Write the structure tokens for this entry.
Amino acid sequence: SARNMLLNKSNVACSSQCVAQRTGLPARPSLPLASSRSMLGVASRQPSLAPCAGRQPVSTRAQPTEKEASNKEEANSAARQMMGMKGAALETDVNKIRVQLMKPVTWIPLIWGVACGAAASGHYQWNNPTQIAQLLTCMMMSGPALTGFTQTINDYFDKEIDAINEPYRPIPSGRISEGEVIAQIWVLLGAGIGLAFLLDNWVGHEFPTLTALAAFGSFISYIYSAPPLKLKQSGWAGNYALGSSYIALPWWAGQSLFGTLTPDVAILTILYSIAGLGIAIVNDFKSIEGDRQMGLNSLPVAFGVDTAKYICVGSIDITQLGVAAYLAFGLHENTYAAILLALVLPQIFFQVKYFLPDPIANDVTYQARAQPFLVFGLLTTGLAVGASNSM
């Protein structure tokens, strides 16, 4: 009862003060709270009072210091440097610069494609130690070795345009010499071809299928970046070459390693690479100004942003919907077809929410949210083909 009296008294006092603030009249006097507690024998305790109007609550949350914020930004920049992403730290360690040239963030789709091809073979055993070692070796060939080769040679031939679009890159920033870059190109190419030859012998191929695929993919990488062909100067040819390198070639490698690459699957992955073309177009929006200055006829430059963005999403969505129809009506794998369809719907949602309103500002946001569904769609397709091949 004594406590209730004191709390009521404190609330009245606060109300009186609030009224005084609003009207300018003197506040109604009240007995000091501490004295009241003392008279009633109640332990002194600061009550929790509601703030009066006009008073701003004081935040007790600790704000990061300038040094802490700077350290966090440095850590993020270092991570972006190691992954070869935009906004990277200007590293001076030559070994870290070599890794940055190889753009590890771009290895992931190739490694995933190899796994999809292994699943599509119908003969890969997920708990077989020998086959696991073979799969990992194939991933090393497709990812760090040959994709690293592709990215390094692309940086070498793009040093002028990178000076406009991405001046932090190692070559235009002068943090690595052209001679060191050329040496890295040859080492990575040799490593990729060597691993492919090792795998052919390991699984007993009569014809060196993986070596041939590695050589063909390396040739495509060269003509994509290097004059006189320089496929990337043409929006259609360049983007399709890039898309097929990310989808068809690693799939073929994984399936050839553990089974036989059949014509129908080869055609399916070639068509699926049209979705890869759409992904490649997404990356072109951030480079419009530099591409225009250097005479590169990317699709956003050739058709304008509004038309190119619809070409982009159309190629991604229509391709996957067509593959889902093939799984259902061609392979009669209805469950996998339904899963693939379910994975397409979120991509369409993120296109409408992020990409179509502003493909230049939201390209990274869109890819971060939508591409996981696309790559799981690839695996779903691989599992469907594998289930059909194992029957």
